[in-house]
Amino acid sequence: xxxxxxxxxxxxxxxxxxxxxxxxxxxxxxxxxxxxxxxxxxxxxxxxxxxxxxxxxxxxxxxxxxxxxxxxxxxxxxxxxxxxxxx
Length: 87
Known about the structure:
By secondary structure, the chain is an alpha+beta fold. Helix content is 34%, strand content 26%. It has helices at 8-19, 32-35, 41-54; strands at 25-31, 57-64, 72-79. A three-stranded antiparallel sheet has the order 1-3-2. A hairpin with a 7-residue loop joins strand 2 and strand 3. Helix 1 (8-19) packs parallel to helix 3. The longest helix is centred in the middle third of the chain and has 14 residues, at 41-54. The termini are far apart.
């Protein structure tokens, strides 16, 4: 996903809840300046990875796109939907 929005991790995991099965893979491109232009890119990447974890994903790999794209990173994660509660 290449959403380029401040809440892009939330958008990706929200869409994953509709379109991915448990164990499905997510590839998200994080553009640090779109999330927070005042923070260091590494801090933005860490915050977005934490957000993915909180939203039920297990990050597998992260890499920056330097020197091709400044302040961009790709994160590969596995989607793990939370178990539905029985009513």
